[in-house]
Structure to design on (651 residues):
């Protein structure tokens, strides 16, 4: 399905707003949207929300024979998918330009920068190595997929634990998570991509463009950096004409951005956050709590992944039920006998005003009583349930 | 810091020094020297424009068809400018190991995309609405700086086809070893684990059409690297200009008699 084209007046409005240094959601030029990182109950499952852009990443591993040219190294495989669920502009055909660009940038950012120690993934040199597969799915497209995907991928990789192996001669035993604790991957550094969008022939630049801003951009510059002020990858696309002095201030910003992301309390704090969440998930598994994808859908709070069962008083259920029923029955005899006979005999309409007639007088409003009854009945039915009444998705 | 350790490791392991103490690289060049560039234009009679370029051992063939009517779906044509269609492929015999998939894999698609974007910025597409310009690039021998050689060859092919350009598009790679920037990397230097920055430049205005870098580099070194790459591109533009003028002389000589 083709996406609705952007109207000219909307385009002009956006460009003019950018010229006046205003953005649609009121951010400043160099402001990021709120980033939320949520981990699922499986190892290696991570959901990142960058404003309204939502990206899900899952890491899995498998024992495979290694590549011929690199017999002692493990294999890292990245796969990003754009499903039509994310945006009507995405079609199921594979080779769209955006898909190629995102995939390659993800590969470059994470594989070429050597952030993961692939030598440690080798089990038997030349025969068996671990293949780590990173699958990123875009759930909702509201601009800046690259940043969200890179954050999701690196968070999921940090969260992931691979099974422990024991080698005896040529025999390889893979232990399940119950037998031996799984081992985390050895990650040297965490590269994160930051996107800069250029407008009006490179004269204006915005950080973290939203979907509307992306439509009117001239070009994009993606820079991946890590905490140690090292640039892991630079990629410009869109055929914009940059000047050398434009690239320089961009990376000064990046430095600020990187520090911001690491130290500011509203933004992500990769290391402490990941440690906290991964240990939490470990606890959950041990206690035999429910796990799986359905449980991992965020309910806006990480503590909501496991709920305590709420105790309900069940002792005098029968008595309260009878009481309620009696009360309801009495309410049907609320109107005085006089009124009743009048209604029964005179079922003819009474003219109130021209064009308006009334049949009968109606009974006394007993809504207040009925509401209380309904609530009490529901609580008793779901005595041991673990549902909550909040919205699951926002 | 990490790069010096890596090159020290390389030195220990394979005895290969990317930059010796006297300042010579593996093939005897100095740090800022480009490889020998040879090019010929109008190598094919059938195509509107064609060029063959050799940059050291990297050999590239570029062919341009156009501007012509949009082939395929009408939906692809733009009402106010020309569409540039690029296809990048490597011959199966171009690399040390035989390449399984010459085109259609991710890396080739990405290269095609980058080439397309680079030339969309450089070609005056407004002059040819509702038409299409095809650029086909094939690498016959890959010895580093693949993308740069493709861009240079495609520029020459476009000039040969007579398509108006804003300026020559010159591309070059630059690397960084032990605080020195190297220009025009060969395959060994690129895959040696050091940094490689590819830059496509329009020399007269200094506008950057594309910048691409993989592998880690400390932020402080970026300036030096960009400078080295920009300078290499400027030098390259002079060579390309010389090639075009020589070709024109030859052609005008032929037509005179």
């Amino acid at each position: 399905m083709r996406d609705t084209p952007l109207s000219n007046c909307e385009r002009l409005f956006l460009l003019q707003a950018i010229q006046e240094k205003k953005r649609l959601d009121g951010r400043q030029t160099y402001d990021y949207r709120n980033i939320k990182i949520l981990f699922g109950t499986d190892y290696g499952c991570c959901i990142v929300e960058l404003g309204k852009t939502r990206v899900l990443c899952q890491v899995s591993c498998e024992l495979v024979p290694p590549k011929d040219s690199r017999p002692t190294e493990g294999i890292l495989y990245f796969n990003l998918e754009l499903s039509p669920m994310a945006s009507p502009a995405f079609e199921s055909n594979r080779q769209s330009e955006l898909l190629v660009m995102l995939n390659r940038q993800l590969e470059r950012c994470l594989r070429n920068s050597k952030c993961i120690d692939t030598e440690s993934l080798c089990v038997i040199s030349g025969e068996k190595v671990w293949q780590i597969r990173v699958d990123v799915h875009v759930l909702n497209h509201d601009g800046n997929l690259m940043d969200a995907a890179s954050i999701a991928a690196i968070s999921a990789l940090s969260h992931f634990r691979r099974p422990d192996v024991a080698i005896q001669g040529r025999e390889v035993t893979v232990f399940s998570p119950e037998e031996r604790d799984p081992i985390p991957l050895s990650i040297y550094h965490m590269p994160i991509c930051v996107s800069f969008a250029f407008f009006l022939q490179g004269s204006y630049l915005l950080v973290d463009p939203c979907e509307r801003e992306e439509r009117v951009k001239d070009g994009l510059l993606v820079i991946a950096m890590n905490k140690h002020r090292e640039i892991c990858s630079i990629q410009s696309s869109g055929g914009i004409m940059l000047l050398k002095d434009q690239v320089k201030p961009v990376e000064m910003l990046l430095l600020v951005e990187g520090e911001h992301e690491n130290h500011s309390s509203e933004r992500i704090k990769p290391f402490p956050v990941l440690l906290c969440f991964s240990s939490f998930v470990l606890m959950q598994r041990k206690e035999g709590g429910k796990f799986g994808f359905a449980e991992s859908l965020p309910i806006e709070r990480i503590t909501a992944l496991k709920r305590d069962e709420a105790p309900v008083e069940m002792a005098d259920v029968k008595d309260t039920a009878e009481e309620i029923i009696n009360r309801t029955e009495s309410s049907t005899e609320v109107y005085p006998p006089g009124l009743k006979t009048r209604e029964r005999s005179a079922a003819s309409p009474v003219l109130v005003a021209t064009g308006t007639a009334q049949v009968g007088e109606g009974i006394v409003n007993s809504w207040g009583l009925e509401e209380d009854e309904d609530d009490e009945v529901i609580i008793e039915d779901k005595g041991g349930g673990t549902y909550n009444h909040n919205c699951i998705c926002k | 810091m990490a790069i010096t350790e890596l090159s020290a490791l390389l030195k220990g392991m394979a005895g290969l020094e990317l930059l010796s103490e006297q300042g010579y690289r593996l093939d005897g060049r100095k740090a800022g020297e480009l490889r020998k560039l040879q090019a010929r234009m109008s190598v094919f009679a059938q195509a509107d424009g064609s060029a063959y370029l050799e940059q050291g051992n990297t050999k590239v063939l570029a062919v341009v068809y156009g501007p012509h009517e949009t082939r395929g779906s009408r939906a692809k044509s733009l009402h106010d400018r020309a569409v540039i269609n690029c296809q990048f492929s490597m011959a199966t015999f171009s690399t040390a190991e035989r390449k399984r998939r010459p085109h259609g894999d991710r890396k080739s698609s990405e290269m095609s995309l980058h080439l397309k974007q680079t030339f969309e910025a450089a070609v005056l597409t407004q002059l040819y609405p509702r038409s299409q310009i095809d650029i086909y690039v094939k690498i016959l021998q890959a010895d580093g700086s693949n993308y740069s050689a493709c861009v240079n060859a495609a520029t020459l092919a476009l000039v040969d086809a007579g398509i108006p350009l804003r300026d020559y598009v010159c591309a070059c790679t630059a690397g960084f070893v032990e605080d020195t920037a190297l220009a025009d990397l060969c395959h060994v230097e690129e895959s040696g684990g050091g940094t490689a920055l590819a830059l496509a430049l329009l020399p007269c205005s200094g506008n950057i059409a594309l910048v691409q870098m993989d592998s880690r580099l400390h932020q402080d070194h970026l300036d030096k690297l960009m400078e080295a790459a920009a300078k290499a591109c400027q030098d390259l533009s002079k060579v390309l200009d010389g090639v075009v003028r020589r070709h024109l002389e030859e052609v005008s000589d032929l037509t005179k008699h």
Notes: The first strand of chain A starts at residue 35 and ends at 39. Confidence is low (pLDDT under 50) at residues 256-293, 298-307, 337-346, 373-394 of chain A.
